[in-house]
Automatic annotation (TrEMBL):
PROSITE patterns in alphabetical order: ATPASE_E1_E2 (PS00154)
Protein name: Magnesium-transporting ATPase, P-type 1
Domain of life: Bacteria
E.C. code: 7.2.2.14
UniProt-listed InterPro entries: ATPase_P-typ_cation-transptr_C, ATPase_P-typ_cation-transptr_N, ATPase_P-typ_cyto_dom_N, ATPase_P-typ_P_site, ATPase_P-typ_TM_dom_sf, ATPase_P-typ_transduc_dom_A_sf, ATPase_P-type_domA, HAD-like_sf
Main function: Mediates magnesium influx to the cytosol.
Gene behind the chain: mgtA
SUPFAM superfamilies: Calcium ATPase, transduction domain A, Calcium ATPase, transmembrane domain M, HAD-like
Keyword Cell cycle set for record: no
Organism of this sequence: Streptomyces violaceochromogenes
Subcellular location as annotated: Cell inner membrane
UniProt keywords, alphabetically: ATP-binding, Cell inner membrane, Cell membrane, Magnesium, Membrane, Nucleotide-binding, Phosphoprotein, Translocase, Transmembrane, Transmembrane helix
Length: 836
């Protein structure tokens, strides 16, 4: 248990763990790893099969189906009940199987992007410790590690030293605000120096010793399942909207059928099985199966071909629906490998002294802030300035924070005085300088001129203060009255694939917006260099109501980024967010789809739904296409199934009221439904036409339902025309139809044939180019048509109460079918023209 190893003073804890501030040796770590095992949660429990099946039952359609089955059983309509329950079982099994396969491949993929931690390990007992990245799974109790902003705490740890450390520990305690942590020497409940696995570092840095790993951590003991999946993405919203309309229909159907039959035909409860079968006929019961299969196949293909890892399956659909992609600049459009370009004084002349002060600040921030790795700008400063900083004695430092936009270090100077060095964004630093307003504007213009060249700009200011604890506190909390020293500028090369990726996204109908913490001019120049027109660059403070038409929004705090993303979503867009830093985490969570490159900080990778395993940004374009592909297939399935189901139901109800007998026996309705379901599975393997991949694939419940009703009515008309033709053929215009078996068989055949036609004609973005091989949908439609023709005369057909038809009965429905296909094609063309 964590508390046994972590209680008492720091020294006691280190002694108990047989470790020290310098960490373990490699041999110690290896033998401990063998003894205690890997640092992985034992509880990444894959759900058991019964559990999966129960979960599949929670799908609303399956649940309604189950209810209908139970109603049939209650009125002792055993045949109907058995068929419905078989449908439920098959759909559950298919779905559970699909989810199982998807889970398995996802687990394997997630391991690809598993995190690492920076530990101090010594090659031998007498050698100095070296910071080294190891996979999180290899951490052992006693390891000394470093934590920095955006890191996931990889095990239960006790802080040895910490600077400005705040952690989110909501996963464990439910608190939403970050909690400040200090390396106090005694563990006590009011202020504990422990940080637990499952929390994330919001700001600051620390050095800490691992007290518990794997199954021994508090997180594992609490049996929490990590990161509950996020609900309410674009996908969930549209499928929910459609599902609920349908479910209302389904629940209304049986009572309506019963009532209509009772009032108009004087039939009683004996029509209930028929009523139930009709309601079942309306249900798209294969929807969950199709959805899982389409998304899982798409995700697997993306991982294989473009190293894109979709962590949450519905995110693939949402990617297909994305019409606005927000990206951050540094580290995404640029490489985040800044190189010092120039150091200049207030007059704009080269001045090495400015660089020296900036490097002194960077050196002491690095020494004192307990960060696992230096910030990119600090690293560049130290590289260029060479060995500086050690001539002073560091007193205190606060690392850079994207909210405040400055960093400060306090060093001991001569004669008992302290020097405060503040570096940061030009506005933030100048605001703290004792500079006249006119002079300040001139200096801001100087910074803007440098930024115009695409350079990142760091302002440097210092202050000389008498030594004392109060000075240190004031200097790090709120430094004021500083003396401006100058600017250091950095060149950060563009990411090699960024320009191509932006071009591809624009070609795919996705609007790209850049939300950055950097200077407006730097951002504008980077965009221009990438071929993206920055337009009128605004700062986040100028846009309280969302970005509107702005392409580039600069000087965003992490909250601004999240706020702008939320505003875009509220305006009806489906928003993707691509970012890699701590300052992107809130926006990644706020977007419909969060995307992070593999090199992103742990927290960003954890919050993202999609991780790009390669450095290649063009993978996003491919991922968007894969999303549209999957959504296109799901959309095809829904359109085809619902419009033909609706048509059948309406025709069946109308015929039921006009005929002296039921237009189809319940078993026939269900058999037909089963054949259709089987054929529909082909949609999971379809390749939608180019038209479907050209723009964002959004399923808008309203227009979708309008489509379904329109084409459903057309289908009902075809069915009723068949009905009329049959009536005519059987007995002339005035006689009542009396040969039930012939009528049932003919209608069964006609129904399956119309459904086959619908499958071919209502696919999303269909491209019936000549010479294209029949895809899976073509084959399935052919199979369906064959069953429709061959089943009635077969022994199984007669078991279902059908019979072989005289040749003439194939001819007349064939004419109806031909006319129907023409009408359908015409309506489809018209509808496409109206809404491209
Ligand atoms: N380590 C640092 N020390 C001091 N100032 C810094 C440091 N890093 C960045 N800055 C300043 O803060 C500004 C904004 O940086 P911030 O990290 O918020 O944005 P960014 O990383 O450039 O942008 P993006 O949001 O595109 O990743 C920079 O222009 C720079 O002036
Ligand atoms: Mg960034």
């Amino acid at each position: 248990m964590a508390s046994e190893a972590s209680g008492g003073t720091t020294l006691e804890v280190l002694r108990r763990l047989e470790s020290g501030p310098r960490g373990l040796t490699e041999t110690q770590a290896a033998s401990r790893l063998a003894a205690v095992g890997e640092n992985t949660l034992p509880d990444r429990r894959t759900p058991s099969w019964p559990r999966r099946c129960v979960r599949a039952l929670r799908d609303p359609f399956t649940a309604v189906l189950l209810c209908l089955g139970l109603v049939s059983a209650a009125v002792a309509s055993w045949g109907t009940a058995v068929v419905i329950l078989a449908l439920v079982a098959v759909s559950c099994a298919l779905r559970a199987g699909g989810e199982h396969r998807a889970d398995r491949s996802l687990t394997a993929l997630r391991e690809l992007v598993a995190g690492t931690a920076t530990v101090l390990r010594r090659p031998g007992p007498d050698e100095p410790p070296e910071p080294r990245e190891v996979p999180v799974g290899e951490l052992v109790p006693g390891d000394v590690l470093r934590l920095g902003p955006g890191d996931l705490v990889p095990a239960d740890v006790r802080l040895l030293r910490a600077r400005g450390l705040t952690v989110h520990q909501g996963a464990l305690t439910g608190e939403s605000a970050p909690v400040a942590k200090r390396a106090v020497d005694e563990d006590d409940p009011d202020e504990t120096p422990l940080c637990f696995q499952g929390s994330t570092v919001a700001a600051g840095g620390a050095t800490a010793v691992v007290v518990a790993t794997g199954a021994a951590t508090r997180f594992a003991a609490a049996h929490r399942t990590p990161a509950a999946p996020r609900e309410g993405g674009a996908f969930d919203r549209s499928v929910h909207g459609i599902s609920w309309v349908l479910i209302r229909f389904m629940l209304l159907t049986p009572p309506l059928v019963l009532m209509a039959n009772a009032t108009l035909r004087d039939r009683g409860l004996e029509t209930l099985p028929f009523a139930v079968a009709v309601a079942v006929g309306l249900t798209p019961e294969m929807l969950p199966v199709i959805v899982t299969t389409c998304l899982a196949r798409g995700a697997a293909l993306l991982a294989r071909t473009h190293a894109v890892i979709v962590k949450r399956l519905p995110a693939l659909h949402d990617l297909g629906a994305v019409d606005v992609l927000c990206v951050d600049k540094t580290g995404t459009l640029t490489q985040d490998r800044p190189v010092v370009e120039r150091a200049l004084d207030a007059a704009g002349r080269d001045d090495p002294e400015v660089l020296r002060w900036a490097a002194v600040g960077a050196w002491w921030t690095l020494q004192l802030a307990e960060l696992p790795a230096p910030d990119a700008l600090d690293e560049a400063l130290l590289e260029t300035a060479g060995p500086v900083g050690e001539e002073y004695d560091g007193v205190d430092a606060v690392p850079f924070d994207p909210e405040r936009r400055w960093a400060a270090a306090v060093v001991r100077g001569d004669l008992g005085r302290h020097t405060v060095v503040v570096t940061g964004a030009a506005e933030a630093v100048l605001e703290r300088c004792a500079t006249a307003p006119g002079e300040r504007d001139r200096l801001l213009a100087l910074a803007a001129r440098e930024a115009d060249a695409g350079l990142r700009v760091l302002a440097v200011a210092t202050a000389d203060r008498p030594a004392g604890a109060g000075t240190v506190h004031a200097a790090t909390a709120d430094p004021r009255g500083l003396a401006f020293q100058g600017l250091v500028t950095f060149r950060d090369a563009l990411a090699p694939t960024a320009a191509e990726a932006l071009r591809e996204l624009a070609g795919r109908g996705v609007t790209v917006k850049v939300l950055t913490g950097d200077h407006p001019a730097t951002a504008a120049r980077a965009c221009r260099d990438l071929g993206l027109d920055p337009g009128d660059v605004r700062t986040a403070a100028q846009l309280p109501d969302g970005p509107g038409g702005a392409t580039v929004v600069a000087r965003c705090t992490p909250e601004d980024k999240a706020r702008l993303v939320a505003a875009l979503r509220a305006a009806g867009h489906t928003v993707g967010y691509l970012g890699d830093g701590v300052n992107d985490v809130a926006a990644l969570c706020a977007a419909d789809v969060g995307i992070a490159p593999r090199s992103a900080v742990g927290m960003a990778r954890e919050s993202a739904d999609v991780v790009l395993a390669d450095k290649d940004l063009t993978a996003i374009g491919h991922a968007v296409t894969a999303g549209r592909h999957a959504s296109g297939n799901i959309g095809s399935y829904l359109r085809v199934t619902l419009s033909s189901n609706l048509g059948n139901v309406v025709a069946m109800l109308a015929a039921g009221l006009l005929l002296p007998f039921l237009p189809m026996l319940p078993a026939q309705v269900l058999a037909q439904n089963l054949c259709f379901d089987a054929a529909q599975l082909a949609f999971a393997h379809d390749r939608p036409g180019a038209a479907a991949l050209r723009g964002p694939a959004v399923l808008r419940p309203r227009s979708f339902l309008r489509f379904v009703v329109g084409f459903g009515m057309l289908n009902a008309l075809a069915d009723l025309a068949t009905f009329a033709v049959l009536a005519l053929a059987l007995h002339g215009p005035d006689a009542a139809v009396d040969d039930e078996a012939v009528f049932h068989s003919a209608w069964f055949t006609e129904n399956l044939l119309t459904q086959a036609v619908v499958m071919l004609l209502l696919r999303t973005g269909r491209r019936g180019g000549p010479g294209r091989a029949p895809g899976p949908v073509g084959l399935a439609a052919a199979g369906l048509a064959a069953v429709g023709v061959l089943l009635p005369p077969s022994p199984l057909g007669s078991a279902l109460g059908m019979t072989a038809l005289p040749a003439a009965y194939y001819l007349l429905p064939a004419v109806v079918l031909g006319l129907y296909a023409l009408a359908l094609a015409a309506a489809r063309t018209r509808q496409r023209r109206r809404q491209p």
